[in-house]
Amino acid sequence: MKQIESRDNALFKSFVRAANGKSRNQAWLEGVHLCQAWLQHGATPPQFAVFDTSRVDQSVEIQALYRAVPDQSKVLLASGLMKKLDQVEKGQGVGFIVAPPAAVIPEHIKETVLWLDRVQDPGNMGTLFRTAAAAGVGSVYCSTGCAAAWSPKVLRSAQGAHFSLTIHENCDLQALFNRLEVPLAAMTLQGSVSLYQAKLPHHIAWLAGNEGQGILPALEAIAQLKVYIPQASDIESLNVAAATAICLFEHRRRFLSGE
Amino acid sequence: MKQIESRDNALFKSFVRAANGKSRNQAWLEGVHLCQAWLQHGATPPQFAVFDTSRVDQSVEIQALYRAVPDQSKVLLASGLMKKLDQVEKGQGVGFIVAPPAAVIPEHIKETVLWLDRVQDPGNMGTLFRTAAAAGVGSVYCSTGCAAAWSPKVLRSAQGAHFSLTIHENCDLQALFNRLEVPLAAMTLQGSVSLYQAKLPHHIAWLAGNEGQGILPALEAIAQLKVYIPQASDIESLNVAAATAICLFEHRRRFLSGE
């Protein structure tokens, strides 16, 4: 177990970098829920389990986390230092430093996956991860230009979905098209087929695009399927995370019911 | 037309209050898109159309807005002042001050509506508005405890959906239940019926709850229908805005196809 008293401590400084999303190899899981989710799903203990000294005994959940992690991972922060790591206004006094799991892209992509093309808003990214996990989609491929998947805002918005998914970052989606053995379905505003009339294969690669610009034209052009969601006329399009939820669950509905 | 040079100007100070969500009677519509949407849907010109003097000629869109509003609404801000109103990092140099439309709750609620119980996150609120508008739902009822509907963050996230909806704020939803002439359908984690098996009437009041706590038990208890979304097991529940998108569009799908 380590104790840190000074903000000049080198280890503490590395935590600050991770908490600000400035570390390539370390992510900061802030708060009880994300730490619990990591332990529930994660194969390895956290690199560091960081506790506010003055608040370890404050709640049953924090005590349980404290007991669940090995002693050599534990770091006790002197009061005041935790505030430097908190990304939310009222931090809970606990967080894990973890290495994002390495993800190897398979040679052949044969299952239902979600492809994200330059989704920029961290809240949208996190919601998309959460929706994919809930829909039973196991892998998400994020293009270069997407928000950093393991940044604190994306982690917070995904509520632990990261640990149920295989997340591939900085993908060249056009190059990966060759590995795709399931049809690529672009969600577009002006698709050729209504989602509700489209024939959806059991395994499919869903493709969602940037909030403002949509899907890169070159990528949309190679998609075998283009679907739109029939919505009220003269109305602004749906948010990308809402549109994706509708498509993923329409797909799920069909195969749940054996339709 | 007015010109404001000083940050001590009383009118400018009132703009700052509105831009910070601190005004009860005025909302700040920031950026080209929201201003265009207001003009497209709004019955009245904005109270004030605020332009950064140095940027009026910077884009065709801003010039068009400048021409579209009456002279007495126009306010030109000296450079530097606009930054005090910008809620996003790179403001566009234009915004409208408007009075949120007054909404009178009907004696009898007979159409499909969306009820929100203490939805706290402004991004979720805005996405919910955007989804409701896209699904053709005309009215949203927000309980006391919801994020302020006309705050800048909710406006930004809703992308203009406010102007296609009738938005009721600070509602006592339990008291309003008496006015409801359509079934109230609570979206819950452990509902009694799967969304995909539920009989959904043509007109329905969808009820979504708080991000952490869900729907108030007393309110859930009076709902005629409780539906859950069948999702992958052992996975964190869906985000409230994603879950609502799935329900609203499943409902829309059924009546689009005449099912």
From TrEMBL, chains A, B:
GO terms for molecular function: methyltransferase activity. Residues 112-249 form the tRNA/rRNA methyltransferase SpoU type domain. SUPFAM superfamilies: alpha/beta knot, L30e-like. It comes from the Bacteria. Keywords: Methyltransferase, Transferase. Gene3D superfamilies: 3.30.1330.30, 3.40.1280.10. Signal peptide: none annotated. InterPro entries: Alpha/beta_knot_MTases, Ribosomal_eL30-like_sf, rRNA_Methyltransferase, SpoU_MeTrfase, tRNA_m1G_MTases_N. GO terms for biological process: methylation. This is RNA methyltransferase.
